[in-house]
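Notes continue from the previous slide.

Worked example: a multi-chain complex. Inputs as given:
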Amino acid sequence: MKKLLALAVAGCMALSLAACGGSTASSAPAASSEAASSAAESAAESVAESTAAGGKIGVCIYKFDDAFMTTYRNALQEILEGKGYEVTVVDGNNDQNKQNEQINTFITQGVDALIINPVMTSAADQIISTVKDADVPTVLINREPTADQMSAYEKLVYVGCDAAQSGTMQGELILDTENKGDINGDGKVSYIMIQGDPENIDAQLRTEYSVKALTDAGVEVEQLDLQRGDWDRNKGQEIAQNDLAKFGDQIEVVFCNNDDMAIGALQAIQAAGRTVNSDIYLVGVDALDAALNEVEAGNMTGTVLNDAKGQASQAVECMEELLGGKTFAAGEQSVYVDYVKVTPDNVAEFK
Ligand code: GAL
């Protein structure tokens, strides 16, 4: 099943507007195999080239203590090491000043490329100007700067997903239920929203578009509460627990901007004696293993695959293009991997 998924992902990536690894993008390896005088020589040379791809790569993660980014960074490390790069992955501890120092240290150490998951979206200008001054090719991941900010440096690419799409899909998961989320039949969907870090565009757009999918479909909504859970399981549990005590049966839908908070919310839902898909709906994003299990068991209405492995391999492809000398024109510096809706019907494909 994983293979099926990989194929689906490859298909989606091929559709992405500015996907790295496209026909215009593979010049470096092709040039060396053309120079070889026989097929055998050319094969040997390309093997040598890929194992010796070499180079020092610095990877900055906003914080290690984040469930989704843990899967993502492990995938990045595995892919990069598998290709023969010398990789150092550092933990920003959710502190932008610390990450700025880490970036400077990598630059002083002479890394060939950087992959950076910024701590703060608002730090994008400063990060971009630092890597530009040092002339280090850089792939930004997970927190998207504006096209305008990225246009300052042509050896810079962003790899991520279109966060609005994941929000829309969460709303669709609710619209796909038998009562479109209106469990008590009072003509409106009453929900609580457990938000990620509100500084993060993923949190902003998922919050907006999950609800927009309902209102666009003509469904009336009522927001009972919106609180920041900072992507964190414990905070998700606390917020849901308080809201369930306060609003009780009024809550029909629990929207969580990610799965880790949804798993926390599920603990509170179960402790309150409520039953998902019967008297309350619960949706998340990421398709963490724990969430896939809960979707399969009917304890979550659904989730949305945030494809960590697909994004990691796309980030490495883009990095290799930059290392091969490719530059990216303004307006073409964002590469998106598609989200995928996960329900009990297709969950097995993701496990
Ligand atoms: C989101 C992901 C969250 C969290 C966040 C960190 O894309 O869904 O779980 O990891 O990134 O920026």
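Summary box: The longest strand covers residues 221-228. Residues 66, 68-69, 142-143, 196, 200, 202, 231, 258, 285-286, 306 surround beta-D-galactopyranose (CB under 6 Å).
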